[in-house]
Amino acid sequence: MKTILRLTICVLLLWVTKANCQSEMVPIKGGTYIPLYGRDSMKVTISDFQMDVYPVTNQQFLEFINKYPKWQRSQIIKLFADDNYLMNWKSDTELNESMSLNAPVTNISWFVANDYCECQGKRLPTVDEWEYVAMSNETKADARTLESYNEYILGWYEKPKTFNNAIGSTFKNYWNVYDLHGLVWEWTSDFNSVLVSGESRKDVDKDNNLFCGSAAIGATDLMNYAAFMRYAIRGSLKAKYSMKNLGFRCVKDINE
Amino acid sequence: MKLARTKLKVNFQLLLSIAVIFLITSCGNSNEETHEEAADIPATQEMMAELTSPPNVPRGVGKRKAKKLIVNMEILEKEGTMTDGTTYNYWTFGGSVPGSFIRTRVGDEVEFTLSNHPDNKLPHNIDLHAVTGPGGGATSSFVAPGHEKTFNFKTLNPGLYVYHCATAPVGMHIANGMYGLILVEPKGGLPKVDKEYYIMQGDFYTKGEHGDPGLQPFDMQKAVDEDADYVVFNGKVGSLTGDNAITANVGETVRLYVGNGGPNLTSSFHVIGEIFDNVMVEGGDLINTNVQTTSIPAGGAAIVEFKVDVPGTFILVDHAIFRAFNKGALGMLNVEGEENKSIYSGVVQEGIYQPEGGGIQTMPDDAKATVATSTSEKSLAEKMESGKQIYMQTCFACHQAEGQGIPSAFPPLANSDYLNADVDRSIGIILKGKTGEITVNGEKYNSVMTRQAISNDEIADVMTYIYNSWGNNKTNVTKARVDKVKSGH
């Protein structure tokens, strides 16, 4: 009887944590790879970590914002979000009719995304971590050399209005992670560290940007147009920006 | 105290004399001749720039002074028509390919605001070749979707300049249509002309081949290989043909602002049947006269001017000619007005040309066949065979192998209501040619068929072949009938 009770509590706890927007995570085994923009072809080493299987959804964010009213549209400090923040929402705590609960949350600033992850005991992934997981297709950990892999991603970049599709509607990759490509762009913790320095007006040093000729000088894989575009979108952002096509997901270190 | 007052007086006198000097010099300055450096030209008043989509061009600057010119440009990623039945996801400056035409004068201070529509997926920027500064504005205009950026520049050098997006991957942004032209006129403006148009060539790379239907995605590999599926003027096949043709009247001077967005191919720009009176080579100060074909590099431009002396349709092409006829780089200038026979006569006389002299004749291989053609009417099978041969030599180029014609250019002969309705009329068209609008199977055609230099016997054969092919009414056209039409019943 006692065991059954314990089990029930356990299950209940599990259920509660899940409902409490502790979304499902999968382990990612670390490794070493050369990113698109590796200075002096420097390799990047990634430690083991866990990643959310799906991007954070409208529903999950709704729960969060009810809990932390300071992030509501009318409450947020202007320093932390621009006027596009949650622009599509009907009110502080209501989605628009056209928006689906199961779609990834977008029009979120970096500050809010960052805090969301922290509240879950997680954090935003780094660019290197994100790219590491995202370079896989269904079967291979590093599919960057495959034509079909690149075509799929480029095809998505050309498809309009994918932000209102449900999570899980794209493919499950090698690491069992969904929707890295094909749904929305995703925030990373150090999104602007590679392309653009903090002070974008000073951005004339060829080491710091991927404009024009510098792109060809700085990059290691000139055919990886998809990655170029991701670095470009990250470089165009500021932490207070929010965009209709930009969401996020969280990761967590593995503490042994 | 007294000392202070004297000082005040001296100060006042000094101030007065400075004011007088300033007045004199400022009078001198209002005459712009004194500004040797474009950078010193003052821009006082504010003005909204007029932006136009191709093939239109905003009003010239004329004698206006340099101003602060406000330019607002929006970036839109949107699906558009590449050719009938084929669409493409264009990325555009101002909603058109090429982007809106910007017209400025030397000394203008341009306040440029670039807005990236919130529905767009990608960040963009603009590199204007008319800008003196790092990245041509690219570094200062890099803008995320749902945002806008403003930067200022002063136009220092007159000329016609390309602008384009320079966000990585640059090649893809340009290949998707992100380019346009900005004109910097000299003080006093360019000389007045009667008609001005904006034309820009670009090459496109699609997953499917030229003409494959549906939404065609960008093909990165083909772009890298410079293997273009479409080479077009103003972003799509047919943007300057048929109803979209540009127009002028006889006697008018036409100025074309021609750019080349690339991304890869150099344009050999030519107008069939015209000679450019003036070409501002590469859009700069150098003027070349009497030019047949001008080379426009990718990311470059040229201004061409010519007076149109005779009426007709003048075809604009990239004279790397397969691009014109197979990839779409074709436009039309329709000129209306009085004919001038001293400049162009049209056909005056038509004769038989026999290089070996009239005496030498090729003998037919088969003596029997000679008899058949000369004395009696041929059998249907013979006429079909001979007719097919004549068709392939004379008619095929326009009406195509299966008589399907070419949409909006050459009417079909297959299943043709126009053809079947009146046999004698059709014979007459071969004999005399045909100009003007006709309706065939519900489609309007307005082009020219010249009269065909083939014998009545050959006309009978080819007409029989046409009428007995591709679902037509199986009329057997006799030579006698052709003779009768020719002699006017």
Describe the secondary structure blueprint for this structure:
The complex is a heterodimer of chains A (256) and B (489).
Chain A: H1 2-19, E1 25-28, E2 31-33, E3 44-46, E4 49-52, H2 58-67, H3 110-119, H4 127-134, H5 147-158, E5 185-186, H6 212-218, H7 225-235, E6 246-247, E7 251-253
Parallel strand pairs in A: 5-6
Antiparallel strand pairs in A: 1-4, 2-3, 4-7
Chain B: H1 2-30, E1 46-48, E2 68-83, E3 86-93, E4 102-105, E5 109-116, E6 127-128, H2 138-141, E7 147-154, E8 159-164, H3 170-175, E9 179-185, E10 195-204, E11 214-215, H4 220-225, E12 230-233, E13 246-249, E14 253-262, E15 267-272, E16 276-280, E17 287-291, E18 293-296, E19 300-307, E20 312-318, H5 322-326, E21 330-336, H6 367-375, H7 380-399, H8 417-421, H9 423-432, E22 434-440, E23 443-449, H10 456-467, H11 479-486
Parallel strand pairs in B: 1-2, 2-5, 3-11, 4-9, 10-14, 13-21
Antiparallel strand pairs in B: 2-3, 5-7, 6-8, 8-9, 10-12, 14-19, 15-18, 15-20, 16-17, 16-19, 20-21, 22-23
Count up the helices of chain B: 11
- Given as residue ranges, the uncertain stretches of chain B (5+ residues, pLDDT < 50) are 23-32, 357-375
The total of beta strands of chain B comes to 23
Tally of separate domains of chain B: 3
Q: Quick check: average pLDDT of chain A?
A: 81
- Unreliable spans of chain A are 13-21, 196-213
Q: How much of the residues of chain A is beta strand, in percent? A: 5-15%
End-to-end distance of chain B? 121 Å
Which range best describes the helical content of chain B: under 10%, 10-25%, 25-40%, 40-55%, 55-70% or over 70%? 10-25%
CATH homologous superfamily annotation of the largest domain in chain B: Cupredoxins -  blue copper proteins
What is the helix fraction of residues of chain A, given as a range? 25-40%
* CATH class division of the largest domain in chain B: Mainly Beta
Assembly type of the chains comes to heterodimer
Number of strands of chain A: 7
Q: What is the architecture of the largest domain in chain B at the second tier of CATH?
A: Sandwich
Order of strands across the widest beta sheet of chain A?
1-4-7
What gyration radius of chain B follows from the Cα positions, in whole Å? Answer: 31 Å
CATH topology of the largest domain in chain B: Immunoglobulin-like
Shape of chain A: globular
Give the H and E element order of chain A: HEEEEHHHHEHHEE
